[in-house]
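Encode chain A's predicted structure.
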Amino acid sequence: MTDPTMTETGDPRIIDTLQPLITSRRLGRIESVLDHRTYNLTMVLDGLYDTGNISAVLRSCDSFGVQRVNLVMTSARYKVGRRVSTGAHKWLDIHRYDDPVTCAKELKTAGYTLLATHLDGAVPIDEIDFSKPTALVLGNEHAGVCPEMLEMCDASVIIPMRGFAQSFNVSVAAAISMYHAVQDRAARLGQSGDLTDDQRQRLRERFYRRSVRRSDVLLQEAGLAD
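Encoded structure for chain A:
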């Protein structure tokens, strides 16, 4: 599947055209966000059916700098939730798959280690080295990670719990897992964000486009339309 960042070219002419239309405060915010973004940590949502949960995870991904999210759209119970992601989806690369095996194979080919949040045979999440490209897999609200995806995963991890409940809500589990992974990456690497120059430039263009009203019209008038 094509990386969504390929829809942005990173063309410096586009960036130079839009930059004067963005406040200095917003420009600083964009650079700070880029500093903390990574493609080397990604989330896989395997068969979630409540879009409220999906939206909550997307919001957490944006907050923690996880740029890529993978949605395996296999649940027959998929329904529209009431909560929204507060627009977080427009800042992220969202990959959609019709089956878990295709998703897992693509991520493995890209060099990711797949870790399922699953009780059986799991190791505590604080024993994982997140400095390497890692995909955290969360299963749906009822059945968890599907057998096909589990078969493709390299290991299972668990968030230690101290009460009677054995699991968190999926969006809570996602947020806790990402927080731990980002902290681990920062401790090992000095900073969680690690975009390449090309990735940074492409995302800068995307963020500029989404920060300027009618940017597509303005770029068309400037002869820089897609």
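Residues 1-6, 78-85 have pLDDT under 50 and may be disordered.
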